[in-house]
Amino acid sequence: xxxxxxxxxxxxxxxxxxxxxxxxxxxAKALAGGQSLIPLMxxxxxxPRSIVDLNGIPGLDTLAEEDGGLRxxxxxxxxxxxxxxxxxxxxxxxxxxxxxxxxxxxxxRGTVCGSLxxxxxQGDWGAVMLAARAEVxxxxxxxxxxxxxxxxxxxxxxxxxxxxxxxxxxxxPDPGPRASGAYLKLERKVGDYATAAxxxxxxxxxxxxxxxxxxxxxxAPNNVRARAAEEALAxxxxxxxxxxxxxxxxxEAAQPHSDIRGTADxxxxxxxxxxxxxxxxxxxAARA
Length: 288
Ligand SMILES: Cc1cc2nc3c(=O)[nH]c(=O)nc-3n(C[C@H](O)[C@H](O)[C@H](O)COP(=O)(O)OP(=O)(O)OC[C@H]3O[C@@H](n4cnc5c(N)ncnc54)[C@H](O)[C@@H]3O)c2cc1C
Hints:
Elements: E1 7-9, H1 14-24, E2 28-31, H2 37-42, E3 50-53, E4 63-65, E5 69-73, H3 78-83, H4 92-97, H5 104-109, H6 112-118, H7 124-131, E6 135-140, E7 143-148, H8 149-152, E8 153-155, E9 158-159, E10 166-173, E11 179-187, E12 194-205, E13 208-217, E14 224-225, H9 227-233, H10 240-253, H11 264-287
Parallel strand pairs: 1-3, 2-3
Antiparallel strand pairs: 4-5, 5-10, 6-7, 6-10, 8-9, 11-12, 12-13, 13-14
The structure holds flavin-adenine dinucleotide.
């Protein structure tokens, strides 16, 4: 099906984009990679009156380490993350997730920030950013503000962003020198959304876990953190018993539904198994 009629804007500065968004209100939609918005428009699940294409705005495609963290601009594509040498070592969680998203065509165009703004419970970046304790910078004509990732997701396909706000970047704090992560995802076939997936981020200090982050994909109305599991791991020596106990807590944090991808019990068990494996893999990488 063809999308409904819309007006197309191609601003070349953020200020120009903001003034269009102010004028058009919630009848406007930003366009980044278009890999979620355009399919929705073609299915007529979305019929915005105006499209504000961000792709002509310079300076939004920066992926760099700065100010004690990693900054990922609004036009950084999944593909860029897949290939970036920065997303190794302590940022390995991000580098592992990127190639597991969709297929090369989608990864060439789709963006990290677009995924976060889309807030699909099946989206991979949401769980990754929850585990990494990221924060997004949201901006409008009124100025900019920082939204902790925990506050961004408010429900399926619903965020804390106002209709006239854009995510200009997402910032991942430096997890420290002895840190790493892992992303484990089960998909029915290559390119599919997750049946279930688990993002794990670990930092160590003096031989114990100083910080644990665990984010879940596809097993709740939005991406969720397994908080009880994270708290149980903090300060632990990450023994096998601690890993197994945390994995059981992570499974309890999942609220999956049975669907064509699997039963709720199956998905909960996937979360348990992936959390165990993710914790072992992240610990091994952090200690290497
Ligand atoms: C076949 C297929 C398979 C896929 N598989 C996966 C998968 O396995 N895992 C996964 O995570 N995703 C998957 N996706 C989704 C893909 O990752 C999208 O790229 C992503 O969800 C949205 O990013 P985008 O840049 O394409 O956003 P767009 O489609 O351009 O926009 C999506 C939404 O976010 C808003 N938006 C975009 N950028 C901003 C911004 N900077 N500020 C404010 N709002 C903004 C738009 O207005 C729109 O509402 C798949 C998509 C397809 C078509």
